[in-house]
Amino acid sequence: MDKMLLLGMWHYLLPVPPLIWHGEVERSAEGGNRAIKFMSQDHHRIRDLVVRELPRYGRPIPPLWIAEQFDLPLERVTAILDELEQGMTFLFRNPLGEVVWAYPVTVDTTPHQVTFSSGEELYAA
């Protein structure tokens, strides 16, 4: 029963044959892998940093601060942020170029407030 997919329709739960949903899961995974294929190690490091640090920093994160954390040139960090922001999937910056959200967290007010076990409070995107 734990490997069964049920589709809710009105008051009923209907089983979906594994042959159908297994294919959908595989196609979704392939699409996700293609979406991040462009990312270098620095892309991953920067994205991971802003996701981890937004709750601690508690306000928009400037590119210069990110550059200082990795001892990277500001131009390189700005180019990576541009690439990560292009798809509107990984992060978003304010008009000053500061990171305001990195999925799934944001310093912008949303209806979804999150409190971490460490005590930091932030909003979810």
Explain what you see:
With about 120 residues, this protein is an alpha+beta fold. The protein has two domains: about 30 residues; about 80 residues, Beta-Lactamase (2-Layer Sandwich), CATH 3.30.450. Helices cover about 45% and strands about 20% of the residues. It has four helices and seven strands; from the N terminus they run E-E-H-H-H-H-E-E-E-E-E. It has a five-stranded antiparallel β-sheet. A two-stranded antiparallel ribbon has the order 1-2. Strand 3 and strand 4 form a beta hairpin. It is extended. The mean pLDDT is about 85.
Q: Provide the structure class.
A: alpha+beta
Fraction of residues in β-strands: 15-25%
Shape: extended
The stretches of 5 or more residues where confidence is low (pLDDT under 50) are none
- Number of alpha- plus pi-helical segments: 4
CATH topology of the largest domain: Beta-Lactamase
Gap between N and C termini:
33 Å
CATH-derived architecture of the largest domain = 2-Layer Sandwich
What radius of gyration results from the CA coordinates?
Answer: 19 Å
Helix percentage range: 40-55%
Order of helices and strands: EEHHHHEEEEE
Q: For the record, what CATH class of the largest domain applies? A: Alpha Beta
Mean pLDDT reading: 85
Strand order across the largest sheet:
3-4-5-7-6
Q: Largest sheet, if any?
A: 5 strands, antiparallel
